Fold this sequence. Notes:
- The protein is of the alpha/beta class.
- It is built from 13 helices and 9 strands.
- Helix 2 crosses helix 13 (274-293), helix 4 crosses helix 5 and helix 6 (123-137) packs across helix 7.
- The protein is globular.
Amino acid sequence: MRHLLEIDDLTAVELGEVLDLARGEHPRPVLAGKGVALLFEKPSARTRNSMEMAVVGLGGHPLTIRPDEVGMDERETAEDIARTLGCYHAVIGARVFDHTVLDRMAAVSPVPVVNMLSDDAHPLQALADLLTITDEFGDRDDLEVAYVGDANNVARSLALVCGLAGIGVRIASPDGFGFSPSDMAQLERVGVRLTVTSDPAEAVAGADAVYTDVWASMGQEAEAEARTAAFAGFTVDEALMAHAADDAVFLHCLPAHRGQEVAASVVDGPRSRVWPQAANRMRAARGALHWLVTR
């Protein structure tokens, strides 16, 4: 049995297997007659809808669970919740604040645990990102992805999936908002071809895809004003996109704040692939679930 808590839980070969399953037009009903528990500490339109429909597409029954229904580490420990849900379901998906909760659940769960987002990682988003990039450009080994903004959980998983796929990554972040030393060590272990800079134009120069995310993620609302000041000059606008390759596309995991991390003319413009990227969340989830339950 395997869990998917971060992208580097997969090898490069296994990543290819998951992507092949995600691309399949007619998935087998490998979850027929089975349930999948989807536990949300953090709400999300894309995660809930993509996961529920991925489970349905595999013939299963999704059951979305609110945090007040389980009382994580208040009424019951994370470990006991995992053991309980494993009595009824073939897979447990959890969207949590603290990544260690996922580690604790996976350590005792009788069924695979899938990270639907944590403060450390967003592997299902990264799978959707890679699907979007390869749908656009194929499996070229000279691709370069530029990420402009906070080196957060989305950026970390994106870098890992690109590293496994042989795609180069450039990260442009303000001082104090880059990858930590432990992040850099993790990326180095995977062999990520990484460029780190504080200059967005340097990161974007000649890039095939330009990616950004919100400056203050869920749970960081109190830091929003300070982060807005720190990220001045990091908006992905038409002027910044002009540094990218002529056929470059724009990516964003959503929700987007127009006029902050991205200009409306970019996210709503002809280079934007944010809606195919959002649609790929379902394909990514379907491929990951299929792979996990047929190991």
